[in-house]
Amino acid sequence: MSKRRVVVTGLGMLSPVGNTVESTWSALLAGQSGISLIDHFDTSAYATRFAGLVKDFNCEEIISRKRSA
């Protein structure tokens, strides 16, 4: 078995309580919940109306359409 090295060069985070490591950590320490009513689409056909949505995030700012396909 060969040994391989791993180098961590940064840390990022997207979560229902924050879109940065700092904001997420602060929200967790404050006991905030990221669970809320789903307001992005009609949920009447589903058993639940709640989810942990990532807010204020546009993936197209990070990943191009061509790359994500």
Structural descriptors:
transferase, acyltransferase, 19% helix, 69 residues, alpha+beta, Thiolase-like, 9% strand, single chain, 2 helices
Would you mind describing this structure in some detail?
Helices cover 19% and strands 9% of the residues. The longest helix is centred in the middle third of the chain and has 9 residues, at 21-29. The chain has one domain (1-69). The chain has a two-stranded antiparallel sheet with strand order 1-2. The protein is built from 2 helices and 2 strands, in the order H-E-E-H. The protein has 69 residues and is of the alpha+beta class.
Structure summarized in a few sentences:
InterPro entries: Beta-ketoacyl_synthase (IPR000794), Ketoacyl_synth_N (IPR014030), Thiolase-like (IPR016039). This is 3-oxoacyl-[acyl-carrier-protein] synthase 2. The chain has 69 residues and is α+β, with helices and mostly antiparallel strands.
- Rg to the nearest angstrom? 17 Å
Strand order of the largest sheet: 1-2
Number of helices: 2
Number of strands: 2
Contiguous low-pLDDT stretches (5 residues minimum) are none
